[in-house]
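Morning!

This is the sequence you dropped in the shared folder:
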Amino acid sequence: MKRALLLAALAASLLSAATPKKPKLVVAIIIDQFRYDYLTRFRGDFTAGFDRLLRHGALFTNAKYIHFPTVTAIGHSTFLSGGTPSITGIVGNDWYDRQENKAVTSVSDSDTKLVGGGNDPGASPHRLLVSTLGDELKMSDGGKSRVIGISLKDRAAILPAGHMANAAYWFDLKSGNFVSSTYYFQELPGWVSDFNAGRSADKFMGVKWLNHTLPTERKAYFGNNTESPFEASPYGNEVMEQFVERAIAAEQLGKRDVTDILTVSYSSNDKVGHDYGTFSPEEREVTIATDKLLERLFQALDRQVGLDNVLVVLTGDHGVSLSAQEAQANRMPGGRYPGSTVKNVIQGALAARYGEGQWVAGSWDLSIFLNRKLIADHHLDPVEVRRAAAEAAYTVDHLARVYTWDQLVSGAVPGDEMSRRVMNGFNVRRSADLNFMPEPYWLVTNSTTSHGTTYSYDAHVPVIFLGPGIVPGHYDDSVTVNDIAPTLATILEVETPSGSIGRVLTEMFAK
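The structure's back. Tokens below.
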């Protein structure tokens, strides 16, 4: 009996030694559109935050996303849930909701209102079907922990933070304010209103970066969700960093007897990448600027909380392809055609075959939603219509694969990695009628470049942990971004988020 007790005590001691101590604050950072090779290509330019992470952190060099499409909302929903779209229900940035009979975004919620901006509808995580790390943490301690998400984009602030978050804040281009939603509270906290009153973003009007001068007229400067000179510059991240530092101090994060979580998403990198390209001087400039902002964040954390009490994890929400011009310049295969090309071909083919009507209900990225009501009204077999739509799509040059809803629901797809990732992205209630994959480096977009495929350049991103109990170094085995959430849950000694399919990255734990 004594021997058994001794063995049990020894096992408990070894387990305790192997798992890092609970931090006071988890800072979960995601950089929008951040390929892994940005760390290696710009390594010589890093003197600040990235340099700290690469010298003192645990870098996983072969981390991939294992879902389709590789877009912002899905990457952010994966980050701290560990799930894939098949489980989380977040199947894109936007999709056609068949129950609501309208186009929706990943966080749109007509039952909420914007707080701090205009009278527009708000947003919430109600479309996310699973828990996040923050949800599990708050359930474990009766809601004592504080969980806050911050980004320029609503989906990037809301989805990592989860259902029980105390707040999510994002930047509203109409008002020039950081805003939130009635899902969280009816009025902005005083510190947020004070920050907005300082009009931090306005200070960069007319400022020059590289060969670009930002507009001096507010409407042109802030732009819209598609084109925003402010957000498509390093200064979008700069203003968000100021807001993050204010939040750490005002919310007293990491200063109580429980663990708090702060999620931070840098969005300007994505806007710059889409506008200027993967190998552009602008991409290098925004990456170097992010290096400096990360160090400012770490210094603020050290002042406020002490870095010995902080666990940092950093990743990207997706990568990005070469632009068509970059592919051509490097004699790589590739090119581009407008984002509406496949949609228009399918619409024309179905109209010619079945009669006039709006056969395509919506299309986003690499997904096509058919008008199921029109199909039913014409008493057509939906399987046949989807097959006809796929046949039409294949007439478009440079499409590698087309997957129909019927193939995915039955699993009748090739058994390769591409198909496995498309299956991981398939949710039976929400996913599109057709998903298509262009050939490598072929872009279906109106932007300079884009992302969304299962190819390595879209799926390969950094994963870096930094903090007490984490053994620094390069870890070259293949891992997935889905591994982050269960790893953090193990460190915090809380239940693994409900949809997680990842493993615990014990190889970086101090023994």
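Headline: The longest strand covers residues 108-115.

More detail when I'm at my desk.
O.
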